[in-house]
Amino acid sequence: MAIIKTVRGLTPKFGNNCFLADNAVVAGEVVMGDNCTVWFNAVVRGDVNSITIGNNSNIQDGAIIHCTYQKAKTVIGSSVSIAHTAVVHGCTIEDNVLIGMGAILMDDAVIGTGSVIAAGAVVLPGTIVKPGSIYAGMPAKYVKDVGPEMTAAIERTAKNYPMYAEWFKD
Questions:
Q1: HEC assignment per residue over the chain
Q2: Residues 6+ away with beta carbon under 8 Å from 33
Q3: Are the C-beta atoms of 5 and 27 separated by less than 8 Å?
Q4: Stretch 18-43: mean pLDDT
Q5: Around Cβ 15, how many Cβ atoms within 10 Å?
Q6: Cα–Cα distance, 100 to 67 (Å, whole number)
Q7: Which residues contact 94 (CB under 8 A, 6 or more apart)?
Q8: CA 69: distance to chain centroid?
Q9: Strand partners, 123
Q10: d(C-alpha 168, C-alpha 170), whole Å
């Protein structure tokens, strides 16, 4: 059973039909929308500031979602996929975004709607990613605009994760 912790009197709140893997951790001031999934070894830690996650978003295996005390909250939109071992810290991710495996997003970054952060990218503090763009590298830089195939992949990934969760509910 997932670990759900109250911290400083703040208990995570979940929308309808959310899936939390057996060893996922969700703690503190976290508000999650409907049809979200938090996978194995993922941590969503709202102990020092708030974390808000929209509908149909997925936090994949080993990802860490955190924030900065009295400085930077984390806001994740709807239909966002945060891939395996990514770190999302004190930033804003708008709707329909794909964060690649092992990417790191730092405080006060803003990831625009329909964007992709490539696997292994490091998004420095305060970086503004324009909507519909792909950023890659260390530090992450603009590579190109998201095309129709990548937009379809973003949508497909967000739609598939609730289906995958059903496989584990038996």
A1: CCEEECECCECCEECCCCEECCCCEEEEEEEECCCCEECCCCEEEEEEEEEEECCCCEECCCCEEECECCCECEEECCCCEECCCCEEECCEECCCCEECCCCEECCCCEECCCCEECCCCEECCCCEECCCEEEECCCCEEEEECCHHHHHHHHHHHHHHHHHHHHCCC
A2: 15, 53, 54, 55, 56, 57, 78
A3: yes
A4: 98
A5: 15
A6: 19
A7: 77, 110, 111, 112, 113, 114, 115, 131
A8: 19
A9: 105
A10: 6
- CA of 64: how far to CAs of 39, 40, 76, 150, 152, in Å? 11, 11, 13, 24, 25
What rounded mean pLDDT belongs to the chain?
A: 97
Length of the chain: 170
Q: Which residue has the tokens 């979602």?
A: 65
Residues 96-148 have pLDDT tens digits of 999 999 999 999 999 999 999 999 999 999 999 999 999 999 999 999 999 99
Q: State the Cα–Cα distance between residues 160 and 108, nearest whole angstrom.
A: 29
Residue carrying structure tokens 């598939």: 160
What one-letter code names the amino acid at 75?
A: V
Question: Is-above-0.85 flag for pTM?
Answer: yes
